Amino acid sequence: MKKRSIIIAALFIFSIADLSLIAVYLKAIEGERITLLDGLYWVITTMTTVGYGDIVFTSHIGKVFSMFVQLYGIGFLFGVAFPYIVIPWAERRFLLSVPKEVNLSRHIVVFGYTRLTPFLCRQLESLGLKYVIVESARENAVKAMEMGYNVILSEVSEEVIRRARIGSAMAIVVMWDDVERSLDVLLTLKDLNIQKIAILSDPFYAKYLHYAGVTKVITPKSVAGAQLAKFILERERGMLNIKNIIGDHGMTEIIIPKRSLIAGMTVGQVEEIYGIKVIAVCEEGRISFRPGEGYKIREGNILLVFGDHESIMEFYGGVYR
Predict the structure, then answer these.
(1) Is 214 among the domain residues?
(2) Any idea what the Cα angle at residue 106 is, between residues 219 and 302, rounded to 5°?
(3) What pTM value is reported for the model?
(4) CB contact at 8 A, 312 and 244
(5) CATH code of 138's domain
(6) What is the number of domains present in the chain?
(7) Which UniProt keywords apply (predicted)?
(8) What is the pLDDT of residue 9?
(9) Which residue range forms the structural domain that includes residue 151?
């Protein structure tokens, strides 16, 4: 549809340019010189049947040309523009039926069609993961459908749990960079035991989302579809991306989710129990390197830990037990 519209528009522009050149040439034959801009002005006013009369052809060939331009304009408007461009566009915008629910399982539920959503969806598709976008604005839902993404039109309410089959989903990702809308989603789904990821440009409000039950908050400066998809898979499959440093020792980042048994423990207790080293702690956007043994770990903290693979995996299991 888009390709056809571009071709029609291109042909129309070229035809207007050609008719403008012919108009300039015919006026020169009649002994009157007009500019190319005058010719373009005459063609457009004649095609739209406005015809102000300030530029008029007096010769027979000029009059025949004027009638041709009028008929061409009317024919293009009602024979091409309306049936092939205007009407299909109106049907897509106002008559297109947007799905209200899906029948999926083991999928990702994405709330909001934003500028970042296509990147995430393409990455999920490349990994073979199923997803559905939940959008409350019809215009955005139609845009997503036109781009070939799986989307449903639904308000954020208890009903969306059934419509998006959230109960059987792997995770939800809130793409709206709006604290109130994000909180609305998280509070609606607060009782569901499912990992919840949110996009937020201002880390100051991250703590409120953690209170509402979010598993991880990502800022647009660091977000990428690959990172989101990778985090979902790590959490779902129980795998970590441990970067080897030396031998079987490496480092990785682990987020402390809500109601984790690790929350409330000190760094010293964690290091003693699991045999790891906490290199840094990120809390509400602030990073503390080499925190002391008495540093208390809280929900929503991101820990950079070092240790052998077995110890790190044991700690990871304790975090999400």
Answers:
(1) yes
(2) 30
(3) 0.49
(4) no
(5) 3.40.50.720
(6) 3
(7) Membrane, Transmembrane, Transmembrane helix
(8) 78
(9) 107-235
Q: Which of 311, 315, 276, 283 is nearest to 299 (CA)?
A: 283
Per the CB < 8 A criterion, the answer to whether 32 and 19 are in contact is: no
Residue whose entry in the numeric block shows the structure tokens 């990778």:
230
Nearest residue to 124 (alpha-carbon basis) of 219, 230, 239: 230
Can you point out the beta strands (E) in 42-175? 107-111, 130-135, 151-153, 171-174
pLDDT band at 96 (very low <50, low <70, confident <90, very high): low
In-domain check, residue 102: no
Alpha-carbon distance of 163 to 154, in angstroms, equals 8
Q: Give the pLDDT mean for 217-225.
A: 59
Phi-psi region of 112 (alpha: psi -120 to 50; beta: other; left: phi over 0): left
Asked if 118 and 200 sit in the same domain, the reply is: yes
192 and 258 both lie in a single domain = no
- Whole-angstrom Cα distance, residue 196 to residue 173? 6
Q: Are residues 159 and 131 in the same domain?
A: yes
In the β-sheet with 243-246, what is the strand arrangement from edge to edge? 243-246, 249-255, 302-308, 277-283, 286-289
- CATH label of the domain that carries residue 88: 1.10.287.70
Amino acid at 235: R
Which residue among 61, 95, 129 closes a domain?
95
Residue 197 in any domain: the answer is: yes
For residue 14, give the amino acid letter: F
244 and 230 in a single domain? The answer is no
pLDDT of 237 > 50? The answer is no
Position 129 pLDDT exceeds 90: no
